[in-house]
């Protein structure tokens, strides 16, 4: 089973998940896809045309999540000085790259870092009735 996964499906899954979060919108500054909440980016999805390595970039301020993300194959602090603020660039085409579900978890973590509290409360309220997270 050395078949290479379709990174575009993973990227699409993260995009769809992120756009489902309260107040999330998609924009294309600099020609790349970003997902924003309250005019703040919480996920960079890059360009989907193959001109750059496929990757997802998220902001992770939780020390454990940040360390876990950086332990992924090819992962590194994001460029342009963003890495100093917790942003992690995660390539999608590396062997052993994180699965879509984990990237979605990190996208949600990134959302929680930048979203207004009222939207995080809305997210938490929506998750309570139907989805038990255990605990």
Automatic annotation (TrEMBL):
InterPro entries: YjbR-like_sf, YjbR/MT2646/Rv2570-like. Keywords: DNA-binding. It comes from the Bacteria. GO terms for molecular function: DNA binding. The keyword DNA-binding applies. Pfam families: YjbR (PF04237). This is Predicted DNA-binding protein, MmcQ/YjbR family. It comes from Streptomyces aidingensis.
